[in-house]
Automatic annotation (TrEMBL):
It is an enzyme of class 3 (hydrolase). Residues 9-270 form the Glycoside hydrolase family 57 N-terminal domain. Keywords: Carbohydrate metabolism, Glycosidase, Hydrolase. CDD domains: GH57N_TLGT_like (cd10793). This is Alpha-amylase 1. GO terms for cellular component: extracellular region. Pfam families: AmyA-A_glucT_m (PF09094), AmyA-gluTrfs_C (PF09095), Glyco_hydro_57 (PF03065). One of its GO terms (molecular function) is carbohydrate binding.
């Protein structure tokens, strides 16, 4: 056959920062290793391979022989190594200097370890904005891959998407290949011959074409049911056999070879976007539902092919709006990047700054900043890992700036970039970020010794896929299904566990409930809110002493229509890992009892394990951290995680009733729908009555003990802790 076309197979292998070691190993055994074993048997086939930095570092430590095999294929021109952002950050989510820095750093790493010549890069989640062109070019990259969906949004019809285009920004050029959505859905789910037949039709209609498949390598073994399909039943070998048998008209080639052999089809400017499914996930949940219903209604109509090309979803950056918790990570990372840049400009300790930059880059890893068909931001261990590296970077910057071994300071600024002022209160042990304008809450509490944010929480919120949960599990048709088509419950009864929050689950959330409100009602967020303090703005002022600083927040509001004033003070002392929390209520009636509660959520402390439990000062254990407790006349409660090595001990200066309950979400991952523990809620509550002046007060203490963890920390982690 004379109508020759080129096929560029590009695999993207990735495991995020913070994923469990066992997950890395399982993916290696199920996907990365067996794929290479089959590939070795077909010397006429060439591929492109992008392996993300977190995974590449893990492979270098645990399976260096695998990287040695890759290096041999690189030397023999069978595998082109595709570069990218070292720690797989979404480029629009990080500053330009970090974009260039991450790409250049990874290029050097790949060149040194694999002997690779890096010309192209993988675009994380194919999230694109046109101004990125200049920075990518500045980093030495000549070409990248986006989805054909991007090009269609630029007005390019399908029949013109069988080659690469050039785009430009400020006179700097970048070649861009359109990845085929059709191939993404064919490989590896359809019979191998179906893909050959599809490409044969392209060869007949568009000779000289380039077809690009660019997608997750985990589809070949790690995604549910794919290992048996791809390897045990021989799909991959069959596919490679067919590619080899048809090599007279179908050439497997690398992106480098394709870009050198063929001129660009044309020039284009590409609108912002990502792959089609991602743009849908970025929309608010109700809009997703409406979007899905609209598509289902229209897709069978005669004019759908003409309509479809004008249909697109939301804007990726609005994940920060959908999930404010991800915006907290983004703002924290941006603040550290700015601080690091200033330290570099001022000539700080080069070695410490280099370490801080690596920690920052790791904290920019994208997976916990969004959510779709994968667990993403719903996975606590991924959020915890991001904060771990960001806090470590902050600690290293303190050392580089030669901060005193014991200090305390407060700063007022717009830390979360919402147009309102927050307060950062910190010493050498803790960092507390408070949002007076959002209910006077503490929204981040960093334990610096173990680089852990105790308020990396996640609220329960509606998701478009929850209607699938309510409909129950179902089996997808066919031998093996894409994760986009599967409805699998990893636990029974998830349809009865859907609960939603109307506010962010943070610390110092002030409630007034009915006097007979129950633990069950409060845990389900079904108790009627009788006050107007949750989420409402508080005034704030900072009181400074040399070794002690208090942030005082107050609000005139009401409960049951009764005018009330709440004043709460958060006090930190230099060298202390404790917070003193004092409340004063004014305007309380003397002839009426009001039910007042203060909510505190602690994150990163999993439930259901014997070594993670509630306890009291006398040593009595009260159950694992998923236990609902309804305590009365207590003045202390501890939350201990022996695995993490932390003990958070709450106490009060008056007898108190106390509720505890877990906050868990029903979320979607590639394995199915599952219940995920997000945080432990502790809620001291009182039936309060005014004294002769209509006042009532309480002083609480939150003591954080990490001596157990510190005794076990590796040397390199201990050195990142802020110490002289």
């Amino acid at each position: 056959m004379s109508n020759t076309i080129r096929l560029c197979l590009v695999l993207h292998n990735h495991q995020p920062i913070g994923n469990f070691d066992g997950v890395f190993e399982q993916a290696y055994q199920d996907s990365y290793l067996p794929f290479l074993d089959v590939f070795d048997c077909y010397p006429d086939i060439k591929i492109g391979l992008h392996t993300s930095g977190p995974l590449m570092e893990w492979l270098d430590e645990h399976h260096p022989e695998y990287l040695d095999r890759l290096a041999t294929h690189v030397k023999n021109d069978r595998i082109e190594i595709i570069g990218g952002v070292f720690y797989e950050a979404i480029l629009p989510m990080i500053p330009p200097r970090d974009r260039v820095g991450q790409i250049e750093t990874y290029t050097k790493w790949l060149t040194d370890r694999l002997g690779a010549k890096i010309q192209g890069m993988w675009m994380p989640e194919r999230v694109w904005e046109q101004p990125l062109t200049a920075e990518i070019a500045d980093a030495g990259i000549q070409y990248t891959i986006l989805d054909d969906f991007h090009f269609k949004n630029a007005g390019i019809p399908q029949e013109e998407l069988y080659g690469h285009y050039v785009t430009e920004e400020c006179g700097k050029l970048l070649n861009v290949f359109p990845g085929s959505e059709r191939l993404r859905y064919l490989l590896p789910f359809a019979p191998a011959q179906d893909t050959i037949d599809y490409m044969h039709s392209i060869a007949e209609q568009h000779p000289g074409s380039v077809l690009v498949f660019g997608d997750d390598g985990e589809k070949f073994g790690t995604w549910p049911d794919t290992k048996a399909h791809v390897y045990d039943r021989g799909w991959l070998a069959q596919f490679f056999e067919l590619l080899t048998a048809n090599k007279d008209w179908l050439l497997t080639t690398t992106l480098a070879e394709a870009s050198e052999a063929l001129a660009p089809v044309g020039k284009t400017y590409i609108p912002e976007g990502s792959y089609r499914e991602m743009t849908e996930w970025a929309m608010p949940a109700q809009q997703q539902v409406e979007f899905e219903d609209m598509v289902h209604e229209l897709e069978h109509q005669e004019h759908w092919p003409q309509i479809k090309k004008y249909i697109r979803g939301g804007y990726w950056r609005n994940f920060k709006v959908r999930y404010p918790e991800t915006d907290e990570m983004y703002c924290r990372a941006l603040g550290i990047s700015n601080r690091l840049h200033a330290a570099e400009q001022n000539g700080g300790d080069a070695q410490l700054l280099a370490q801080a930059k690596k920690e920052l880059y790791r904290g920019q890893c994208n997976c916990s900043y969004w959510h779709g068909a994968f667990g993403g931001t719903y996975l606590p261990h991924l959020r915890n890992a991001v904060f771990k590296h960001l806090i470590a970077a902050d600690n290293l910057l303190d050392k580089a700036e030669h901060k005193a071994s014991s200090f305390i300071e407060a700063e007022v600024a717009d830390f979360n970039l919402d147009g309102r002022k927050e307060v950062r209160l910190e010493d050498d042990k803790l960092v507390a970020l408070m949002a007076p304008a959002s209910g006077g809450t503490i929204y981040e509490l960093d334990v610096r010794s173990i680089c852990h944010n105790l308020l990396a929480t996640l609220s329960r919120r509606p998701e478009a896929y929850h209607r699938k949960v309510l409909a129950g599990p179902s089996a997808a048709g066919g031998e093996v299904a894409s994760i986009h088509d599967r409805v699998v419950f990893k636990q029974e009864g998830l349809d009865k566990m859907l609960q939603y929050d109307t506010y962010q689950r943070k610390a110092l959330v002030d409630h007034f409930f009915d006097n007979n409100a129950s633990l069950e009602q409060v845990a389900l967020n079904n108790a009627m809110e009788r006050g107007d303090f949750v989420g409402s703005p508080f005034d704030a002022k900072v009181r400074r002493n040399p070794d002690r600083i208090q942030v005082q927040m107050s609000r005139m509001g009401n409960a049951w229509g009764i005018p009330l004033k709440i004043t709460k003070g958060v006090t930190m002392s230099a060298g202390s890992s404790s917070l003193e929390i004092a409340y004063l209520l004014e305007g309380l009636p003397q002839d009426q009892v009001l039910h007042f509660a203060v909510e505190m959520n602690l994150a990163g402390l999993p439930s259901g394990a014997d070594d993670r439990y509630f306890h009291q000062a006398d040593g009595k254990k009260l159950g694992h951290l998923g236990t609902q407790l309804d305590l009365h006349e207590v003045q202390d409660l501890g939350v201990k995680d022996e695995w993490l090595g932390i003990d958070c001990r709450w106490s009060a200066d008056r007898p108190t009733s106390l509720w505890t309950f877990p906050i868990s979400t029903v979320s979607q991952s590639e394995g199915g729908f599952e219940m995920v523990h997000q945080s432990v809620c502790m809620m001291p509550h009182w039936w309060v009555q005014g004294d002769a002046e209509g006042r009532w007060s309480v002083v609480m203490q939150l003591d954080i003990d990490t001596l157990l963890a510190e005794s076990r920390l590796p040397k390199e982690i201990r050195e990142s802790v802020n110490a002289s």
